[in-house]
Amino acid sequence: MMLSRRSLISAGGAAAAAAVLPLDRALAAAQAEWALAVRNVPGDLAPRALSLIHGRPPAGLAGTLYRNGPAQFTRGASRTHWFDGDGFVRAFEIRDGRATLAGRFVDTPKRRTEAAAGAMVVPGFGNPGSPATGFSGPDDLNAANTSMLAVGGKLWALWEGGSPTAIDPATLETRGFVRLRDDLKGVPFLAHPRVEPGGRVWNLGLFGSRAIVWRLSSAGELEAATPTELPYASYVHDFTATDRELVIVLQPWVRGTFSTPIVDSLQWKPELGTRVLVIDKDDLSRRRVYELPALSFFHLGDAWREADGTIRFDGCFGTDDTHIRGDVSRLTAGQTFHAKPARAAMIALGPDGRARIDWTASLAEFPQADRRRAGLPRTRTWHVAGDGKWPLPTAIAVTDWARQKTDRFGFDGQHLMEEGLFVPRGASSAEGDGWLVGTSLNLRARVTELHVFDALRLADGPVCSWRADVPLPVGFHGAFVRV
Ligand SMILES: [Fe+2]
User: Fold this and answer.
1) Separation of 299 CA from ligand 1 center, angstroms?
2) In what order do the strands lie in the sheet with 194-195?
3) Going by DSSP bridges, is the β-strand pair 154-158/147-151 parallel, antiparallel, or unpaired?
4) What is the Å distance from ligand 1's center to 324 Cα?
5) 313 or 337, which is more confident?
């Protein structure tokens, strides 16, 4: 009998019991384990080999997937918000058909303060902290837990409210905050910079309705830091860009006077609608504004401009604040909750000044594209997907916008899927011709796994999978550095 790759993974990748348990019982067993997603990592992880459990690693794929995400959620009896856990950098290295894993906490002032206090006392996005814990600037609150940026041979751990943190790419040792300019100490640098195909980096830093537009060379050196004013103090986690324009989506989740926890200073004001600010990269004073109904979001896909001047970009949107606000604080208590998941949608900004959103039926988060096409026309978005029952994603998917089709793969709901990054097969291969490299938390085996998919054949399941000997909490974003 020929077994499909999918059934092989179901039977061989999970415990043998998975093959004989009815699916609903197996799912129930996995659900009981899902709190592993927010369990503390006890300490740094020395490099260790991963076990190949399925398939054959593709020749030509070599590099390191650096991922970031919170990994310290409690100290003593105190518990922090999911978004405020200490950053833990994971390095999954693939070389000569083998894979290794190492992990290290980012050594921040926040982590040192809380270690000394024996409690999660530093205020943040959702953690009120302790009134006795003072702070002198944003970097005293910096969790360095959201993403990774590899630029000019350097590796930075990113958070959205303060400076990047330099990380040694070989040892994962913390080298300290990155000072892009002496007078810009602690100025926020979002965790979602946009990198042009040539390597130039654009980013924003937000203080209410004021913003800094960062422009860095492909070597990671500062080229410009330009103050600008936004129409209102929207919560901006991500923005996007074409090759010529920055595209800043202002959702009606609006910040009042700065206070901590930050989430309590944000108010949902749907009557404002959504404004999309388009700014020329060459002259930041040249801008135009489009209007859409109230949308909520964390993440956007790369934008591009079509021949008639229409700007298009996708994103993962809701229509109220339940998916961005929800009751995320319950996550670190190991409790599920009913958040309304985001759906993939495509926005078009027409040359006539009108904006339009076209929704798909696909639940989606963490959109990724072929980064060689950043700012240029493209057809695909890779993203995680869910079943709407759990608060965290259980599948990986690719949406083909030209064909209006989404293909997906999940391990029968037994894994929590993390972000997948596209790695082209070769420098000149076509869009999408390559691999999607990503990780999952296998709830049945209670370990983290590393997967390589054929990026255009996700529904076939992984080309190969490796298994770690430890479970790591579900992380946020990363970067793949090819060798
Ligand atoms: Fe993000």
Assistant:
1) 6
2) 194-195, 201-207, 210-216, 222-229
3) antiparallel
4) 11
5) 313
> Residue 10 pLDDT > 50, yes or no?
no
CA–centroid distance, residue 307 to ligand 1 (Å): 30
CA 22 to ligand 1 centroid distance, Å: 36
**Separation of alpha carbons 351 and 355, rounded Å:** 9
pLDDT at 263: 86
**234-250 pLDDT per residue, tens:** 999 999 999 999 999 99
Q: Are 315 and 355 in contact (CB under 8 A)?
A: no
CA of 474 to the centre of ligand 1 (A): 13
- Residue-wise pLDDT tens digits, 388-420: 666 789 999 999 999 999 999 999 889 999 999
| Cβ contact 53:463 at 8 Å | no
| Sheet with strand 63-67: strands edge to edge | 45-49, 98-105, 88-95, 63-67, 478-482
pLDDT per residue as tens digits for the range 332-376: 776 666 567 899 999 999 999 999 999 999 999 999 999 999 999
- Look at phi and psi of residue 176 and say left if phi exceeds 0, alpha if psi is from -120 to 50, else beta: left
**Widest Cα–Cα separation across the chain:** 68
CA 130 to ligand 1 center in whole angstroms: 26
- Tens digit of each residue's pLDDT (9 = 90 or more) over 114-129: 999 999 999 999 899 9
CA of 147 to the centre of ligand 1 (A): 7
Ligand 1 centroid to Cα of residue 73, in Å, is 18
Query: Ligand 1 mean position to 393 CA, how many Å?
Result: 14
Q: Which residue in the block uniquely carries the two structure tokens 């990503």? A: 438
- pLDDT, tens digit, for every residue of 50-73? 999 999 999 999 999 999 999 999
Burial (0-12, 13-18, 19+ Cβ within 10 Å), 200: middle
How far does residue 18's CA lie from ligand 1's centre (Å)?
A: 33
Residue 377: phi and psi, rounded to 5, are -55, 140
